[in-house]
Each structure stands twice: as C-alpha cells, then as structure tokens.
Amino acid sequence: QLQGRQRLSPEIIVAEHARILELIEAGDAQGAAAMLDEHLARARELLAASLGGEAGPEADVPSSALARQPR
Questions:
Q1: 69 or 49: whose pLDDT is higher?
Q2: CB 4 within 8 A of CB 48
Q3: What is the pLDDT, as a whole number, of residue 56?
Q4: What does pTM read for this prediction?
Q5: Across the strands, what pairs with 6?
Q6: Does pLDDT of 8 surpass 60?
Q7: Residue range of the domain that includes 27
Q8: Is the pLDDT of residue 13 over 50?
Q9: How many Å apart are CA 53 and CA 37, to the nearest integer?
C-alpha cells in the first residue's frame, strides 16, 4: 500500500483488483490485461520513486477502475 512517497489508498487498490477480477470473470482477457498493466505501471513508478528515482507519469494517472461502480 505504501508506494514511494505517496500512499496508494486502499480504495484504489481494492477498486483496481476488483475491476481486474470482474474483467477476468467476464472473459475479457484484453481488458483484464490492460487494467493489470495500468495497475502495475503505477505501482512500479511509485516504487522507483521510493528507491530514490523519480516517479514517471504513470504514477499520477487516475485509476480507470474508480470510474466504474462496484457490483
């Protein structure tokens, strides 16, 4: 949950994980892969920043999972 100097909120983490699972359950492999890529890119960039690098643009991209309402 702690990614770099910024804390990723539990709401974002849960929303992204739920969206990935929802896409898998719906049989949308391409959508699930895209959401997973977005999720991991943000985590990777924030982790790099915590190790002394600079976070890339993916670190500040709003999560597309938050745009969806949970089931």
A1: 49
A2: yes
A3: 60
A4: 0.62
A5: 3
A6: yes
A7: 2-58
A8: yes
A9: 20
pLDDT of 64 strictly over 90: no
User: What's the chain look like in SS3?
Assistant: CEECCEECCHHHHHHHHHHHHHHHHCCCHHHHHHHHHHHHHHHHHHHHHHCCCCCCHHHHCCCHHHHCCCC
Residue 11: CB atoms within 10 Å:
11
Q: Is the pLDDT of residue 66 over 90?
A: no
Domain membership flag for residue 64: no
Please give the tally of structural domains in the chain: 1
Give the whole-angstrom CA distance, residue 44 versus residue 65.
18
Measured distance CA(21)–CA(46) in Å, rounded: 23
Would you give the distance in Å from CA 59 to the centre of its chain?
9
Question: Is the Cβ–Cβ distance between 39 and 10 less than 8 Å?
Answer: no
